[in-house]
Write a structure and sequence with these properties.
Blueprint lengths: L1 E7 L5 E6 L1 H5 L6 E5 L5 E6 L9 E4 L4 E11 L5 E12 L5
Antiparallel strand pairs: 1-4, 1-6, 2-3, 2-5, 6-7
Amino acid sequence: MVVNLTTVGASTNGWATIGSCAAAAAGGRTRLDTPTVPSTAAANMAIVPVAADGTFCVTASTPTHVIVDLTGTFVNGSGMRFTPASPTRVHDSRPPT
């Protein structure tokens, strides 16, 4: 899938990653690193591997809120063709306002 990972409200400098839960469980960083910067929103876009059921994991080195927006997917069949999607927020850890 193609996502934009944003970190907001980090307590200290650090990083957040998104990708395969199996890689995260093994202690490895996955496909996308986004910096965490106090008092700043930081974003990064990438192609991220997901499990067969479409799940993924986000890991951060410091407390922060994370926002994940889906912008496209790859469809099996004719050479993993990219299919754009209207940006869809699939996760937002900030409290509702």
